[in-house]
């Protein structure tokens, strides 16, 4: 039986990953360590919080003693690190917590993986570590790291640490670098759930700059199957880009959302741009497709329709995560734009 410590498993991607693994791989036990920041919600664990192969632990990945205790108590053989501060805009207004969680937290987990001689350490990273692209080309695993935001700089630092622990102490690792995810349980600070939530409530849709920034979208379930495939099949020390070949300009994404919700384009409001805004991301995922026989299962059009339906049908969830703190965040983030 594989016994995995998943960190950040109450967040967007982590909770989708735990849900998928518990449903599809009954031989796996998961200890789920999450600090429950604003982005981590027990509501995201609906349907599996009390599953017999799942144990939720509230705590910080920077707490080395706790991490070692979990590894011992649950006889963990693998760590998959999803835990992070993940929002670029928040990293621009306050970078320190990004260094603490994304860098020091990853270091703490690596030390535990080394000292406990774990079978595998998987670092869930991002394509944003590569920086930005012009109108042509895609990121490959050979693209040099050139992060532009405090968020991506902290993720790149963590990637370097993972490789250093592999090189220096033989920690058996993989790094995955995925493009932008969307789907159920994404906190409504990111583009797609924010626009759906605002449109559902007939609120303005704040588009940064000209709205022609391009992201390469992947449905969250497909990211989860890719991480699982890496865990099952990848040799240690390999890095994989993950992407859905679904490049879209932000305005085109918003257009689809408005059409599906039957809301007017007049809700769109162009606002002041994000400082240092990366123009375009696009992933070359040939390596994982060829070497590990992974494929995304949904087109963007299928995925976005599913996602919009999920948000329409889960407005209780939206209501519970969009609490008083969220309103404060929203007013602060968008007030001078
Ligand atoms: P998220 O913000 O939705 O969730 C992060 C989770 O980590 C939350 O549950 C939070 O409570 C937890 N957490 C934060 N600090 C912690 C700490 N110190 N100790 C323990 N738990 C802590 O993020 P997400 O979108 O699910 O992203 C998951 C991972 O995937 C991140 O590492 C992110 O960099 C990476 N990633 C995200 C995307 C995307 O589009 N969302 C794309 C590529 C890679
Ligand atoms: P985001 O979801 O924050 O992801 P990332 O910056 O990590 O790619 O943003 C996706 C794109 O949407 C990015 O170009 C910024 C833009 N955006 C807006 O135009 N308005 C918004 O309110 C948000 C949150 C993002």
List keywords for this structure.
alpha/beta; binds nicotinamide-adenine-dinucleotide; 337 residues; two-stranded parallel ribbon; binds thymidine-5'-diphosphate; 12 helices; Rossmann fold
Description:
This protein is α/β, with parallel strands linked by helices and 337 residues long. It has a domain at 3-182 and 217-242: 3-Layer(aba) Sandwich (Rossmann fold). It contains 12 helices and 13 strands. It has helices at 12-24, 64-73, 88-93, 96-115, 150-169, 191-200, 220-233, 250-261, 286-292, 300-313, 315-321, 324-334, and strands spanning 3-7, 29-34, 54-58, 78-81, 120-126, 173-178, 181-182, 205-208, 214-216, 218-219, 238-242, 247-249, 268-271. Strands 3-2-1-4-5-6-11 form a 7-stranded parallel sheet, with helices on both faces. It has a two-stranded parallel ribbon with strand order 7-10. The relative contact order is 0.13. The model has no long low-confidence stretch (mean pLDDT 97).
